Amino acid sequence: MEPVRITGLVHDYVTRDEEGNNTETKRALDHVELNVEEGQFIAVLGANGSGKSTLAKHINALLLPTQGRVLTCDMDTADDRYLWEIRKSAGMVFQNPDNQIVATVVEEDVGFGPENLGIPTEEIVQRVTDSLAAVGMTKYGESSPNRLSGGQKQRVAIAGILAMEPKCILMDEPTAMLDPIGRREVLETVHRLNREKGITVILITHYMEEVIDADRIFVMDAGRIAMQGTPREVFTRIGDLQELRLEVPQVTELAHLLSERGIPMPPSVLTPEEFVTAYKEVAGNTEATARTNVVGLLENEPPKAVGRPNADVSAAGSPDTEAEAPVLSMRDVRFVYGVGTAFETVALEDVNLDIFQGEYIGLIGHTGSGKSTLIQLLNGLERATAGTVRYLGEDIFGEGFNRRQLRSNVGLVFQYPDHQLFEATVIGDVSFGPKNQGLSAEEIRERAEWALTLTGVSQDRWQSSPLELSGGQKRRVAIAGVLAMKPKVIILDEPTAGLDPAGRDEILGEIDRIRRETGMTVILVSHRMEDVARFADRLVVISDGRIVFADPPRDVFHHREKLTSIGLEVPQVTQVMQMLSAEGIPCREDAITVEEALDGFGVAGA
Fold first, then answer.
1. CA–CA distance, 600 with 277 (Å, rounded to integer)
2. How is domain 4-243 classified at the architecture level of CATH?
3. Which residues of the chain have pLDDT under 50?
């Protein structure tokens, strides 16, 4: 039995007017041919809009072919008689967990699927226990999903699918909201199910490091299969992947760049361990070592700056200046959810933080650490249980303070763009904020068009409904809606989740450019260490509701063991340089980007 056999698959999305007449036809899949063998671990990559999610929904029979045929576990998805069996056989984990969480208690939600399959009660209990343990959510079994963070909800959604033990698991960006350690734990769980129980896995992701252990990778572009092969075969084609708006793991890119500089690194390095082994062999060769030392021309120079230089940071974690007052500050802040109820939970404790004009802050922490709560306090969406939050020195809940104006000055982009998209058209949605600022019609239009162009939303989508867009496109529109208000502070809660690598770099780069040109303050909440390493002046690290670090990225990433203990990691390239330094190989162990690492070989570590 083949879990998936697809032949000549075409899918057209058709837009109709109120009378039911076709007004627009968009081809999402264009004669796709794809076979998956039983027990394989398949990865599907591609830029936003390439057709990845549409393909997955066909395998699960959520969509039916316009042309062609899809067989899931030898059942034709177009045959209504097999619909229930197909859904049992191919479980799907969506990008947004809110789309598939149905119960009011976590354990009940995870048990919902097995219960509907008629599994005996004793076995349901065991499956729920095992599934929650597999995704690290055991202690939340009796919690309400509504009290969980976005990443925690995603773990519950994954556990719900695991509990049904399907023959095939489809995962559409399932780890986008998880912290690095949580992401790794979930993938290890899925790999174990694949190996030990023979469950076929089809993973859609933009995290390249998640697919290095896949049996096969399919790369999509414009609704077609553009590339396919093993991870080593695909990732050696760096130029082709970049043309498709994709990337490779940092270690693969670093090995490739070293090869271009004449250092004979193999072209198929996929992991930090492989890189270290390969480089040690290179370093053992006298001639190669000499060439390596040529690369390390920066031996007596400081590390190359990334973006603007980091601000000097005092022991308290704030820029060392007496003249400058913070744009936002928190003093002795405590926040408790569900005070006086059975669900009472302390989310923040003893938080003290100053954020200054023009800073680029990276806010990082494990799933459920309190990041989202903290930024909602800064925006005035939540009120601290104790302590004060100030904007330009004023208590935001003080008498006479204008919190409506605060939300224009401190713009917040939520984790899930669906939570802030509600107008009939894209341009109407982006115009909403400027309209409420009392601007003229001409200025409203100019700001909306400027923000949509900036975030890469094509003009042919401006009159579309936001709800018709892909997850990545919705995220761009949500960001545009906040930028259009030209806030003094913009807070971005996981803004790049669901975006392809090129789109992610474009948006973060443009936001940084605006910050440098206008002095806007940026607070970026992210689980991608590579992103905060490139852009942030200062990292605020939060764990279990308390601030652990508030220092420049280079200083924070020096504490690799501490970060690992609280569910975080350092950038992959930093990990490699630290591993090489531990082996006694001269290199700049505090490098935090590929560019710094490339120029840091043969240089004594920090």
1. 18
2. 3-Layer(aba) Sandwich (3.40)
3. 286-318, 321-322, 606
